[in-house]
Structures are given as C-alpha cells and as structure tokens.
Amino acid sequence: MPLGGEKVLDVACGTGATSREIARALSDEDRFSKVVGIDSSEGMLEEAKRREAAVDEEKKKGKKKNANENENVEFPAPIEYRMTPIEEFTDQEEQFDRAYCHQGAQFFTDREKALGNVFKSLKPGAHFNVAVWAPVRGQKLFEVLRDCLIECQKEEWVPILLKPFSYAGDHESTSRVDAIDRLETDLIKAGFENVDVIFESDKARFDSLDEALKVISVAPFGKELMDDAKLFEKFTRKFKMKMLTEGSEINDRERANDDLSQRLKSGTDGGDEVVVTMMSFFAHCNKPWAAGGIQSSSFKC
C-alpha cells in the first residue's frame, strides 16, 4: 500500500485505472505525493488524461467548497501521464519510492530492458508489485472467446486475444509452475530481492451475457469484428450458446428446461449474473538497500 509523500510509478498504466487507485491511496495531503503513469499507447493515455481532467475539476470544486465551509477533505494525489514505453524510460534514475505494473508485463517488447529500467528508476529499498494473468487454461470466458473466433474462421486473431495470458511463453500449454518460475527468475535477474510470487483465483461477474461479450470490444481486432454485422451476429450467437451451456459457473441446473432460444435472444442467463473464474500471478519484491543486495546470502529467492 503506498504511503503519503511517496512518488509512485505506474508502468504500462493504460487508461489509468491503477494510477487513480494509487492517487486516492496517497491523497494530496502531503505535497510530495505524486503518481507518474507511463504507457506506449497514445489512445490509452488520452483516455487516462481525460478522466484525470474530470478528477481535477472535481478537486477544484471540492476545495473551493471546503474553504467556504472550513472542512478538510482529502483528494487524490496528482497524476502525471507520459507516453513512453518502459524500455525507453531512462531519465528517472532512483526517483520513485514504489512501482506497480498491473497486467502490462506481458506486452514488454524487451523484458530484460523493461524490468531493468524499473529497477533503475526506484530508490534503494523501494517496492515493486507486478500482476500478470495466469495461462488461459481454466479461464472459461477467454477459452469460449477463443473457440468462437476459431469457429468463425478468425484463427489469426486468437494469438492477439490470448497475448495477455502468455507471460511465460505459449498461452495454451504453459503450466502455472513454469509461469511462476519465469516471473521469479526475471525479477531476480533484474536485480530485485525478496521476490515472492503467489497465484490467486477470483470470480469476475457480469450482469448479463451481453455485458460479458463487451470484453471483446477492447481487443485490437474488436472494432473490425463488431463493424462486420454478419460476422458479429454469428460470433455473438456462438458466444451466448457456449456460455449458457458450458461457460458460466452459475448453478443453474434447476433451469435446465428453460427455453434456451429465448435466453439467447435476451442476452441473459436466466436473469442471473454471469460468473467466470479469472486467475493471475501477483509478485512483490524490492530493490536492495545496497549494491549487490543479499543475493549471495541464505535469503536469496
């Protein structure tokens, strides 16, 4: 958890969701608190900046109101967004107290250089938290999306869809153990110590199948898929059929005799939310206080 007064780096920040969470945790009570979010996508950063501008406007209104009413309400710390890949982020050596990378490490073009630059940007003793998706096997929502693409003769889009699940290599066959070992090894090689990687499984919930299907819209090929009305209609029907018969983890056996065609048409799962399992690896480590750290001691990870 970030502490007031810290300067925090959010690597591959995307639209800024994690940056905003960090900013809220820091608050602007301490004038030194700051978040720097970096990403290589101009579109993602434009959306992040748009949302931050809205937050800034609310802060101005809130502070004016507080001054009039003599209240002391905390507001998020400021966020600076920069368009640069972490592989080229070299001008901030030992500037940050903490760094996060939430579901972005899979997309590093040069993993060794990227993690090395995170390491260099941190102050001695600073913490680094990384989250990456586990291999796709068992994550039914994306397995169904994959199968639908194949059945719609769009196999070329499958590697793009499953890229987020490929940190440790092939997204289909890599085991969880191999993936954990790869993440641990990469962080230690970059110079971090006290590396701890855990596996977590949680439930993602959607109000309906139509809401779950919106996941595909953010894929690089999402717009092309949705703009082709005939293709998207075919894809949608296959998706709903598979999710209703095998994808959702809702205990709906008592509804086995429901009119499936009506449920497909309505885009709902019998009126209930759609629940799917999502699995990730979370790593925590820190930069050594001194050069060389404790890599040669019995505490080596």
Across the major sheet, the strand order is: 3-2-1-4-5-7-6
Count of individual helical segments: 10
User: How many strands in all?
Assistant: 7
CATH class of the largest domain: Alpha Beta
Shape: globular
Global Rg: 22 Å
Overview of this structure, please?
The protein has 301 residues and is of the alpha/beta class. It has two domains: 7-135 and 172-202 and 279-286, 3-Layer(aba) Sandwich (Rossmann fold), CATH 3.40.50; 140-162 and 203-278, no CATH class. The chain contains ten helices and seven strands. It has helices at 17-26, 42-69, 111-121, 140-151, 158-161, 176-189, 209-213, 222-227, 229-247, 260-266, and strands at 7-11, 34-39, 79-83, 96-102, 122-133, 193-206, 274-286. A seven-stranded mixed sheet has the order 3-2-1-4-5-7-6. Helix 1 links the parallel strand 1 (7-11) and strand 2 (34-39). Helix 4 (140-151) crosses helix 9 (229-247). The chain is globular and about 55 Å long.
Kindly list the characteristics that best describe this protein.
about 300 residues; Rossmann fold; 7-stranded mixed β-sheet; 10 helices
Summarize, please:
This protein has 301 residues and is an alpha/beta fold. The chain contains 10 helices and 7 strands.
Blueprint (SSEs and pairs):
Layout (H helix, E strand, L loop, with lengths): L6 E5 L5 H10 L7 E6 L2 H28 L9 E5 L12 E7 L8 H11 E12 L6 H12 L6 H4 L14 H14 L3 E14 L2 H5 L8 H6 L1 H19 L12 H7 L7 E13 L15
Parallel strand pairs: 1-2, 1-4, 2-3, 4-5
Antiparallel strand pairs: 5-7, 6-7
